[in-house]
Each structure stands twice: as C-alpha cells, then as structure tokens.
Amino acid sequence: MNPKMSAGEAGPSRAKPSWLISQLQHMKRDRQFLLMLLPCIVFYILFRYGPIYGLIIAFKDYSVFEGILGSEWVGLEHFRTFFSSNDFWLLFKNTLLLGLYSLLWGFPFPILFAILLNEVRNKRFKKSVQTFSYLPAFLSIVIICSMVIDFLSPGRGLLNQFLQWIGLEKIYFMIAPEWFRTIYVASDIWASMGYEAIIYLAAIAGINPSLYEAAKVDGAKRWHLMRYITFPSLLPTILVLFILKAGSMFRIGFEKVLLLYNPMTYEVADVFSTYVYRKGLIERDYSFAAAVGIFEALIALIMLVAANLISRRMGGKSLW
Hints:
Helix content: over 70%
CATH class: Mainly Alpha
Largest sheet: 2 strands, antiparallel
Shape: globular
Main location: membrane
Domain ABC transmembrane type-1: 92-307
Radius of gyration: 27 Å
CATH superfamily: MetI-like
Family: Belongs to the binding-protein-dependent transport system permease family.
Number of strands: 2
Number of domains: 1
Distance between the termini: 55 Å
CATH architecture: Orthogonal Bundle
InterPro entries: MetI-like, MetI-like_sf, UgpAE/MalFG_permease
Membrane topology: Multi-pass membrane protein
C-alpha cells in the first residue's frame, strides 16, 4: 500500500474539534474583550432581564405583605379594568399624538441641520454652530425643563416680554392645554437636534469625494449635490434611525412630561408612563400599574416590528 495514499485517505476521517471546543478556543483567545463585556452583561441580567419576573404582579392582586408568589391570582382583571376605564382612550390619544408629532417634526430636523451644516464653508463658524447646537445634550432633563419654564414664564419670560414689547398680551403657556404639545415637541427638537445630527455628519463624512467632483464636472450645482448625492447616501442611516424612532414613538419620555405638565394640562399631557407613575408610586396600586406598563411595552414592540417591516419593503434596510 502506498503510504502517501493511506495518509491521504486517513486525513479526512480524522476527528475534528467539536463545536464546543471551537467556541472555548475562541473564548480563550478573546478573554480580555469578554472580561470588558462582563459588567455590561451583569448589568442587563440584573436590571433588564431580572425585573421581568416581577411583571407577574400584573396578573395578581399584589400585596406587599404576601409577596409576589403569595398574592391572589386574578388573571386579566386589571387589563379589563384599564381598557374599560375612561382614562384608556385619553391616554392612548395623548401618547400617540405626542409620539407622532415628535416623529414627524423632530425626526427631519437633525437631517436638514446636518446637510445644511455640511454646506458651510467657514470652518470656524461651522464648528461654533455645531458646538452650541449639541450643548443641550450635556444638560440634564431637569435643567432643560427649567429653562423652558423660565423662558415661557408670564412674568419674566423672554417670550412674553417680547410679546409685550410688540403690543400683545401675555400668554400663560404652561397652563394652556393648547400649547403643551407644541412646547413639548419644540423643546425636544432644541435639546436633541445637534446631538442627533452628529450621526448624519459622520455618515456624510464617509461619502466618497469623487462623487461630488464628478458631479461638479458635469455641471451640478450645490442643490443638485445635496439632492442626488448627499441625501441618497444618507438614506440607509436615515432608515435605521427611523426604525428606532418609530419603535420608541409610544414610549414618551416620562421625566420630561412629568416636569412640564400640571393639573391644568392633564387632558392633553397625561400619557401612559405618567399614569403608571401616579397609579404605582402615588396610589400604590402596583398590579394595575404593572398591567398598564405591559400594555405600553407591547404597543411599542408592535410599532418597532411594523416600522422594521415597512422599512425593509420600501428601502431594503432593516434591523433584522
């Protein structure tokens, strides 16, 4: 027998490392990176996945003294109570409108700001505008809301002083229900526009400069460059961020609404998250509040899946 032939025949039949051994080898190779990732994994296990167990109180008549397992099982009673209450449709309408207005008005602004800022040729002016635009992102939501309240104050607010200067009457913005949604959306745009524009500016920086040079040779103007090169190149980034925005459209920021609203504006400002806060922490109806929170999370999940599906069919881009 030819020893070379026998060696060749025996080669393919040799036992290969199993999948588990291969994974262990990869883990050993990347152990430094895995150790860096460990705190993040522990955080999510303790503070994201661990508390999911507590959602069972939405199906029980929870008592602090009897505990989660010892409380009486009531099934879907809290959900039926919530859906049949007068608060349900009011909360649904307010949450949907605030999220929809924030998406329709707040989402395009960072895109337009990034494209326009990219067209500025004066580098010093460009950097100054960009710096001032994302400064609000470094301020806490409490400071942002305090600035908004002071700016709109009927006594010393700059806007009301301007209205008086041009001969108009003061407007009590913070207690006027018709102004709350405008204030919420406008302040959200002001606080997040510059920070979110950084993502689009980074995407613009990655566009091949030869595309612009070729278009200029063909006689394209700046408007044509923005329309036919910059915006199409940004479209994949826009679609991904749109999916994330649409998925969180129903998860209105709890802190901001809580700091800006008052009993005079409850009819237009009260959303699911603030309702859960009042029912759970103030009225101590923990089971009912958990049921409302689960419903809000399910709606947000449906919105995320729907936005991902629409984006995949229309633009060919999706998160999964």
